[in-house]
Amino acid sequence: MRVVQLTPHSLLFPPPEGALREPNGLLAVGGDLSPARLKLAYQSGIFPWYNPGEMILWWSPDPRAVLFPDALHISRSMRRFLRHCPFQFTLNHAFPEVIAACAEARSDGTWIGPAVAEAYRQLHREGIAHSIEVWQEGELVGGMYGVAQGALFCGESMFSRRTNASKAALVMFCHHFVQQGGQLLDCQVLNDHTASLGATEIPRHHFLSALRQLQRQALPAGCWQPQTLQLPASV
Predict the structure, then answer these.
(1) What would you report as the CA-atom Rg of the chain, rounded to the nearest whole angstrom?
(2) For residues 170, 162, 99 and 25, what is the CA-based torsion angle, rounded to 10 degrees?
(3) Least C-beta-crowded within 10 Å: which of 22, 47, 124, 140?
(4) What is the value of pTM for the model shown?
(5) What are phi and psi of 214, to 5 degrees?
(6) In which residue ranges of the chain is pLDDT below 70?
């Protein structure tokens, strides 16, 4: 196994199965963040993740962290909070603001530099990347964004400026996604936060198989239209 050097002259990625075991999932370096390359990456179960100013790194880890929406864990305290939720939710109303806030939210630094932010804004303009926004009294206080692959959604990042805002964003997104026929969220790599919300790990080959099946399942045309969302009374 070796890391492949990508060039601007070809969009092709090596098979994800050839990724390194250590660091887990590193597959290729270089290339660019053009919409065509990014779309091919997500279609292949690959994502970019690197420090601003350094060479682009492309990953496909094994195992892969995923969240089945119906397995989303909502604690009793969170359920109590949501019953009197002070937030309002929208979909695709403020994508640039959400990705900017995600870039600012990391105290230990962020991989979302200007080039990355612009690349995903372009995917948003093409109707592939989407955001959910959490508002309180007209102020953006939380949200998340990611890339749609049919009935699978690749979550990229979230942020919170109020207690429970990012968790509420995920609860609201999962409800909307399932209502529209969505079946699986890609969380990429498991961490304590996503694990506490119900994310789990599956073998990479299981993820790639699910990706191939779910990306062929088109969701209703209105799924990603800018809209206001409402939490269900049953939460």
Answers:
(1) 17
(2) -60
(3) 22
(4) 0.95
(5) -75, -30
(6) 1, 105-110
> How far is residue 40's CA from residue 233's CA, in Å, rounded to a whole number?
39
Containing 30, the helix (H) or strand (E) segment is strand 26-30
Could you report the per-residue pLDDT of 16-66, keeping only the tens digit for each?
999 999 999 999 999 999 999 999 999 999 999 999 889 999 999 999 999
Tokens standing for 86?
């002070």
CA–CA gap between residue 195 and residue 232 (Å, rounded)? 23
Rounded Cα–Cα distance for residues 19 and 55 (Å): 17
Q: How far apart are CA 158 and CA 169, in angstroms?
A: 8
Please give the structure tokens belonging to residue 104. 């600012």
Instruction: Give the DSSP H or E segment for 228.
Output: strand 227-229
Distance CA 29, CA 73 (A): 36
Question: What is the Cα–Cα distance from 37 to 13, expressed in whole angstroms?
Answer: 9
Give the SS3 label for residue 95.
helix
Query: CA–CA separation, 84 vs 13, rounded Å?
Result: 47
SS (H, E, C) 112-126: CCHHHHHHHHHHHHC
Q: Are strands 139-149 and 26-30 parallel, antiparallel or unpaired?
A: unpaired
